[in-house]
């Protein structure tokens, strides 16, 4: 989709590389299952149905999972006003606008393309942010739509989900399937091992792409609004408030971390940061300070 959001060729290259590697991994995965199970038609058919459902209905699933609903300009005039201004500034179609009634301050964008996109914010975010900070967050989310990385993440996540389901199926089949001969047991363990390996590799590839796309969205939002300081202020405020949200509430939202503006996580370890869907707050603020300096503003 053409828009005034600055194109990011490095992001595009990373998305293509990730999809290529995951596609190659998928071919190897199907080949391994065929060699082990002597049948692959049912697995591929089920996988294709899952991918289609995930791709075509990702926006509805995300809104349902977050207990969110689309809102009209009459219900949320300020929110719609900000989205209208940004879409006009970026010369892009306006997505649907939704609000999730929860105290967790966050936002996300989803949808297979610009014509079927939705931008969602939580009531906790609306209560905490100033208008210029909200504009920075929404510009960040709209850049995900413009760069098409939301659709890529949705597709890329499919293989990991499929491999994870096969691991669970093989595990429970082994536990509760009754007595089996030695060959069947070995095949089931081999399927579990291959699926676990595929899941691990796809998990790491998706995390690496997800961290980079967040930096790309920060850059695009800072440039299109011309106010990187407002986005930095929103990042600092939201990250600090998330740390004070009860752990129980954070766990209910963690399934959407790959789509969120900031991850729904409390203070973590170095290992958890390695597998995070987002770069560190310090890295994001450092990048915004560099952009601010180039634009002639305060660091």
Radius of gyration: 21 Å
Share of helix, binned: 55-70%
Distance N terminus to C terminus? 32 Å
Structural class: mainly alpha
- The total tally of domains equals 1
Q: What is the H/E order?
A: HHHEHEEEHHHHHHHH
- Beta percentage is 5-15%
Mean residue pLDDT: 81
Uncertain stretches: none
Number of helices: 12
How would you sum up the major sheet? 4 strands, mixed
The number of distinct β-strands equals 4
Protein name: Protease HtpX homolog
Pfam families: Peptidase_M48 (PF01435)
GO molecular function: metallopeptidase activity
Keywords: Cell membrane, Hydrolase, Membrane, Metal-binding, Metalloprotease, Protease, Transmembrane, Transmembrane helix, Zinc
Q: Quick summary of this structure?
A:
The chain is mostly helical. Helices cover 68% and strands 6% of the residues.
Describe the structure.
The protein is mainly alpha-helical and 299 residues long. 68% of the residues lie in helices and 6% in strands. It contains twelve helices and four strands; from the N terminus they run αααβαβββαααααααα. A four-stranded mixed β-sheet has the order 1-2-4-3, with helices on both faces.
């Amino acid at each position: 989709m053409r828009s005034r959001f600055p194109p990011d060729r490095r992001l595009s290259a990373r998305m293509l590389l990730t999809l290529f590697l995951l596609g190659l991994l998928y071919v190897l995965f199907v080949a391994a299952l065929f060699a082990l199970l002597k049948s692959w038609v049912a697995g591929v058919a089920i996988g294709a149905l899952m991918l289609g459902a995930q791709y075509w209905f990702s926006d509805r699933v995300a809104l349902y999972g977050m207990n969110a609903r689309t809102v009209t300009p009459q219900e949320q005039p300020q929110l719609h006003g900000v989205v209208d201004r940004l879409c006009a500034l970026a010369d892009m179609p306006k997505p649907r606008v939704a609000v999730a009634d929860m105290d967790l301050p966050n936002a996300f964008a989803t949808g297979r393309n610009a014509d079927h996109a939705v931008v969602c914010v939580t009531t906790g975010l609306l209560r905490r942010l100033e208008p210029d900070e909200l504009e920075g967050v929404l510009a960040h989310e709209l850049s995900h739509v413009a760069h098409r990385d939301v659709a890529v993440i949705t597709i890329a996540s499919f293989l990991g989900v499929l491999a994870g389901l096969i691991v669970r199926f093989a595990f429970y089949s082994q536990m509760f399937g009754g007595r089996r001969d030695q060959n069947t047991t070995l095949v089931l363990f081999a399927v579990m091992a291959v699926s676990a390996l595929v899941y691990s590799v796809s998990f790491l590839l998706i995390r690496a792409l997800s961290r980079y796309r967040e930096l790309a969205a920060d850059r695009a939002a800072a440039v299109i609004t011309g106010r990187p300081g407002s986005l930095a202020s929103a990042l600092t405020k939201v990250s600090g408030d998330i740390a004070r949200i009860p752990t129980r509430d954070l766990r209910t939202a963690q399934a959407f971390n790959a789509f969120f503006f900031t991850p729904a996580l409390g203070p973590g370890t170095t290992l958890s940061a390695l597998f995070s869907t987002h770069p560190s707050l310090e890295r994001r603020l450092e990048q915004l300070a560099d952009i601010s300096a180039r634009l002639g503003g305060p660091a």
